[in-house]
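S., here's the first fold you wanted:
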Amino acid sequence: MEYEQAVRYLFSLLGSIRKENFGLERMRRLVAELGRPERGPGIIHIAGTNGKGSTAAMIEAGLNAAGRTTGLYSSPHLTRINERFRINGRVADDEAVGAAIAQVRRANESLVARCGRSAHPTFFESATAAGLCLFRDAGVAYRIVETGLGGRLDAGNVVEPEIAVLTRIAFDHEALLGGSLARIAAEKAAIVKPGCRAVIGAQDAAARRVLLERSARCGAPAIEASAVWSIRNMRAADGFHSFEAAGAGKRIPVQLSLAGAHQVENAVTAIAVLDALGIGPAAIAAGLGGVHWPGRLEWAAHSRPRVLLDAAHNPSGARCLADFLAQHARGRRVALIYGSSREKAVDEIAGWLFPRAERVILTQSQVPRALRPATLLAAAGHHHDRIETAPALRAALDAARRGAGPEDWIVVAGSIFLVGEARELLGCK
């Protein structure tokens, strides 16, 4: 199957997300049909609300720096489906992605022939299975699997991890995961299983209690990253932090390549995972210093005015971006270009972000789930007295540049799909 045909097939499976469709039975049948690519040693499973992708990329980089081979499955992608599948830190090539999707298509068709249309896996289930097949075929030593939504019923939860990683848990997708922090934590804690170790990032008390209880029930030794590793001599320059991590009888000098104070927390979690896997301080330091994770506090261009991209698609992410702007955009005029998908906490996100900007431009990405600018204005217009709308991102960027000085900033935020479009328009690598 040619790459383009394979990708068209995969996207043909897209549909609306409905809670009643959640479950692992389809995924279990699919991996069985594919010869059990979800089994074997070296699986690192990651769940959380924010920081999953950055933490996964840090773990990947540390393993690669130590000479270990890796596969990383993450979602969603910014511009191309291939971004969901990384081999040794690089996006998988078209041939490998096409071959993996072809395996999944044959398995899907076989399942439907035997069990009927209701057995047909979803887009996300098929994409996850493709990643598992791709990594198996590449023969990597470690497979890093990031959950898409929740944990308990996420397609990736068919794996049996060596280490289950829980980054910070906050409110997001409450309609699907539950209306309290404890209920959301319980959904995500389900990736912890007997026989694995659990590495737990910094958590609010309610989430921490649920994660520790789950680990105890499963007999999974829990490593609380911030309890084992302390931060010393932290410094920051232009939003990039350096520090010394001390713990487990080791000292690791770290210079982060990802911007934002919140990345320090993600780094501590990644350090705890890498240390648990036996990776030495030198490789950990080298890995964390060379991570690239697009669309998260990423400068898109060196032109003036500068353009900053950050998904910030939930309240916790919006707060991190707001803190970054408060600290580093002082004395500058900020034009915020904001868009959002449906089912997001637009009012709360806007409450964090809009006051940090001199002007706000509401727009929408090209995905069907994007909210219209008029809908955003009705939901969040009360957070700023200088708001305009633009029908699409290109028009929003043009509007933001008009009247902007060379030292001003343009910030694109609120939707990972919008950020992906911005990266493409601005020629990001």
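And the second, which I think is the more interesting of the pair:
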Amino acid sequence: MLLQHTALYLLARGLPGVINFAAIAVYTRLLSPMDYGRYSLVLAGVGLCNLVFFQWLRVSLLRFLPAHVENPRELLSAILSGFSAVGLFVGFMGPLLAWLWPDLTWRGLIGLAVPLLWAEAWFELNLELARSKLQPLRYGLMSGLKAASSLGLGALLVLSGLRTYGPLTGLLLGALLAGVGLSWPEWKGVRPLASSRLLPGLLRYGLPLTTTFALGFVISTSDRFIIAWFLGEGPAGVYAAGYDLGQQPLILLMTVVNLAAYPLAVRALEHRGTEAAQAQVRKNATLLLAVAVPGAVGLAVLAPNIAGVLLGAGFREEGALILPWVAFAILMSGVRAYHFDLAFQLGRRTIGQVWVVGPAAALNFVLNLWWIPSLGILGAVYATAAAYLVALGLSAGLGRKVFVMRFPYAEAAKIMLATGIMAGALWPTLTYRGALPLAEQVFLGCLVYGIAALVLNVGGGRAQLLSLLRRVRA
């Protein structure tokens, strides 16, 4: 079921992921570094507020819906109550902040950020609802509609002269189309309640995770604001483009696995006990590493050609420099978030994650203040990599005291060997430049890694392939 659901989520997230990846190439060509910098800063601010105000609802829905699957209306009513209350608070504070902000350009951007935050939060809540119900096709339809409409409308609005407002308005309209247009049947008959007996439990579970995710977001995005403060909005845009170029494909690969894997682990724990859940998370970790490690190494090895093909002229040089470090940092972050951190969630002691991400966020902030003025945007990515490495170590150590996560050491060694073989095969091609050579490099890397992984029987893949071939012949 893990491979089946992962394949479905790969289809569900693959096209939206490609579209979101293409958005980097489009917007770094249509926008100046300063406009792209403002766009990335608004996205970072909306993303942080989304985590701080709404993430507790999403993680609670994902964790507790399996226990209410026969009668979900009470839980959904509690979720809707929390969303409505927080949405009203945001609706009051956002315009107040815009009115108080001294810069006229940023007043308008903050005003646009408020409805964008509402729309993004509702869209992501409904994605988690589809995920918890094990509905990858609906998940994919929502994700695809949002990604395609956001990019198409955003690009048209930029070409019409809206500059920074163009892609942000496109995101707002795309989130509304997908989040409202495709989700209303799920909420039919659900009403927010003035009080709910479930809300205190959702808060106790979700708020520590909200703090954790917010601190994690500080690690990944606070550097953009510090760069803008010290170096200007243009360098912040250059850094954001290079960072997103490395982050998006790796996060896509790891998220696809986690989308399928985590609900299976929760259901195993709820219905079959701790040992079944531990066996499931070990399988999940093998698949996570099998896609993330070669992806990170491929990005690092092919960084100059990837940046040259996908980024606009004003973004390429710095993008190629930071891309390998971004790949390393995101790999560390993903292994922590999608494997070791799950110990706190499965063990229902989510406050432990604060002690993992809190020190790492503090370290990241201090290193950014130290290194960005002297090293420029490279200092920011060094700080991010160091913080994620510290967080990974803390999560692995502290999480064992809550819920033992079985790590597949033997399978990890096979994956590292297969990835090394892939890197060796790519080495003679590193001087190649251009879109067609990049496609050939990606194909070669995937082919060599796939063959090596089958020969080494990573995760029992060779046995599963032979079994599938026998069934096809029969």
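Why I say that: The chain is about 85% helix and 0% strand. Residues 2-407 form one domain.

Talk tomorrow,
H.
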